[in-house]
């Protein structure tokens, strides 16, 4: 084998709780839509550091990570190519300000998400609501079962 191996990109997201709502960004760059703040991991950076950095860059907030909600790896989840993301539940008490890739900040009721969510973030919000109900993060078996269902279903 010669050359650099081709592998998926890795990203980390921070689903930020503020009160009883969660923060989404309106993406400034394609693919457009509402999304959980996050982005690509840098070389030498841990997943947790990436989630915290991306949250700060896109929202101006310093966040505290509370839990790993899940790893989302469906090869079809991002129209730009295969991207694996780790989504963390986070909290902050600050005042968000859109920055970097964020065109605007939108606070939403996670149990009633608006239309126009990017990627598989409707599924992420569904998982978050289940987690907050005390049902725990998605079990590995559930995550594996999703490979057999269309990505548009939560």
Describe this structure in words.
This protein has 154 residues and is an alpha+beta fold. Helices cover 22% and strands 31% of the residues. It contains 3 helices and 7 strands; from the N terminus they run ββββαβββαα. It has helices at residues 47-59, 121-135, 140-145, and strands spanning 9-18, 21-27, 34-35, 38-40, 64-72, 83-91, 102-108. Strands 1, 2, 3, 4, 5, 6 and 7 form a 7-stranded mixed β-sheet that branches. A hairpin with a 2-residue loop joins β1 (9-18) and β2. The radius of gyration is 15 Å and the shape is globular.
Task: Give the helix/strand layout.
Elements: E1 9-18, E2 21-27, E3 34-35, E4 38-40, H1 47-59, E5 64-72, E6 83-91, E7 102-108, H2 121-135, H3 140-145
Parallel strand pairs: 1-6
Antiparallel strand pairs: 1-2, 1-4, 2-3, 2-7, 5-6
Brief characterization of the structure:
The chain has 3 helices and 7 strands. By secondary structure, it is an alpha+beta fold.
Question: What are the salient characteristics of this protein?
Answer:
154 residues, alpha+beta, seven-stranded mixed β-sheet, 3 helices
């Amino acid at each position: 084998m010669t050359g650099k191996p081709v592998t998926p990109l890795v990203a980390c997201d921070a689903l930020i709780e503020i009160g009883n709502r969660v923060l989404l960004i309106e993406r400034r760059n394609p693919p457009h839509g509402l999304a959980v703040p996050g982005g690509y991991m840098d070389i030498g950076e841990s997943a947790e550091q990436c989630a915290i950095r991306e949250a700060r860059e896109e929202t101006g907030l310093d966040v505290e990570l509370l839990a790993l909600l899940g790893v989302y790896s469906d090869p079809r989840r991002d129209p730009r190519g295969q991207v694996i993301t780790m989504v963390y539940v986070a909290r902050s008490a600050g005042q968000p300000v859109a920055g970097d890739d964020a065109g605007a900040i939108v606070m939403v009721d996670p149990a009633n998400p608006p239309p126009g969510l990017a990627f598989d973030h409707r599924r992420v919000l569904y998982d978050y609501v289940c987690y907050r109900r005390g049902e725990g993060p998605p079990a590995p078996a559930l995550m594996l079962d999703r490979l057999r269902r269309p990505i548009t279903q939560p």
